[in-house]
Write a structure and sequence with these properties.
Layout: H1 2-5, E1 10-14, H2 22-33, E2 38-41, H3 51-54, E3 58-60, H4 69-72, H5 80-85, E4 94-99, E5 113-118, H6 129-133, H7 135-159, E6 166-169, H8 172-182, E7 186-188, E8 209-212, H9 221-231, E9 235-238, H10 244-250, E10 255-259, H11 263-272, E11 275-278, H12 286-293, E12 298-301, H13 306-309, E13 316-319, H14 324-331, H15 341-348, H16 353-369
Helix pairs in contact: 9-14, 12-15
């Protein structure tokens, strides 16, 4: 790849940086591969991402200067198109964006090559509108207003897809969404999981179930809470987000909300769990792979990225119905799954950081060498 990039200035673009989630793990790999690249992002909350990301020149948008950007950035969503298009890329020869919202719509110069690693087309403007802006959440007037705003954003999201020369998708599920909404092909490259850090512990299956997730509506964490209550099983939830108040009100005394935790605490939570739960449809879903790397099975909704990371009846159970009853039934049977913790870790190693970075280097080199295929 060094030869392909000789003399070219690389710029990285990321939606926003307010925590270390799956998208930021991809960004970490990009920062390793391109240590001299500038990084552009709409909003950066200091201290929220790893030193590997922050120890470089970061340029934020003017949204950074609005009130409480790290806490209120979701409220500024209608401003994202203007903000992302305001960045100056005149000196960039290669643009690599990681995008689930606006980053892919950045405007490169005519000579620049733009490769986008897509975590998803803008989900709240497309097929998950009701999960975010349903009548039950905003009321009828708010729902109608949001529909007009999101319809405009969906059109903008579609119309800016030609700014990308090549799409990489984090799963076959997302590649299908890119084809459906952008009418573009995408190469699947699963995101990285640190399988050298997430490893099995020494304890047997624990007593509690575990959810690791942002607390947002489409994650369907309420399904996990109700399923655990049906079994009378303890549940631990790691993560923060705007749905926290509603979920706290729903939960009983057997549900423990741990909020944001550091990496050692997260690893121990995985190791000591009975199983990890994924009750919502994910574009890919890092948590199920991290759980398997720590030797723990997964109970997941049989949709989206889980179909690519969980083997039904082997490394976990895929639940066809998104109901508490269906999840409770699968959760009650996890002890009978056949794989040992070591075998689960071996399966998760197919999603390692090294595998991802080798694949990413190959795709970038391939793209730079074959302009006729863009």
């Amino acid at each position: 790849m060094a030869e392909a990039l000789a003399g070219r200035r690389v710029v990285l673009v990321h939606d926003w940086m307010t925590g270390m989630r799956g998208g930021e793990k991809v960004l970490e790999s990009l920062c390793r591969l391109f240590p001299q690249a500038d990084l552009l992002t709409l909003v950066h909350e200091r201290g929220s991402v790893s030193p590997l990301i922050t120890n470089r020149r970061i340029r934020t948008s003017w949204i950074q200067h609005l009130p409480f950007p790290a806490r209120l950035y979701r409220h500024y969503l209608p401003l994202f198109p203007i903000a992302i298009e305001h960045f100056d890329l005149d000196t960039a020869d290669v643009v690599i964006s990681t995008s689930h919202c606006a980053a892919k719509a950045i405007v490169p110069t005519g000579r620049a090559v733009h490769l986008c690693y897509s975590h998803s087309p803008m989900r709240y403007a497309w097929d998950q509108f009701d999960a975010y802006f349903g009548v039950d959440r905003l009321g009828r007037a708010g729902h109608r207003a949001a529909r007009h705003v999101m319809a405009a954003l969906a059109r903008w999201d579609r119309d800016t897809a030609p700014r990308v020369h090549r799409f990489l998708a984090n799963s076959a599920h997302v590649a299908g969404r890119i084809a459906r909404y952008y009418n573009r092909e995408a190469t699947v490259l699963h995101p990285p999981v640190d399988t050298e850090y997430f490893t099995p512990g020494t304890a047997g299956l624990g007593a509690y179930f575990l959810v690791v997730s942002a607390l947002v509506p489409y994650k369907r964490i309420d399904t996990a809470i109700r399923a655990a209550a049906m079994l009378g099983a303890p549940l631990k939830i790691i993560g923060t987000g705007p749905d926290a108040e509603r979920l706290h009100a729903l939960a009983g005394s057997d549900v423990e909300f741990l909020g944001h935790v550091d990496a050692p605490t997260l690893r121990e939570a995985y190791r000591d769990a009975r199983a990890a739960l994924l009750p919502g449809e994910e574009d890919f879903g890092i948590a199920p792979v991290e759980a398997q790397a720590c030797g723990r099975p997964v109970v997941a909704l049989a949709r989206g990225g889980a179909l690519e990371t969980v083997e039904h009846g082997v490394s976990g159970y895929l639940v066809d119905e998104d109901t508490p009853e269906a999840f409770a039934d699968a959760m009650s049977r996890v002890d009978a799954l056949p794989l040992t913790p070591a075998a689960l870790h071996t399966r998760a190693s197919a999603f390692s950081v090294a595998h991802f970075e080798a694949g990413l280097e190959a795709r970038i080199t391939e793209t730079l060498a074959s302009p006729a295929t863009w």
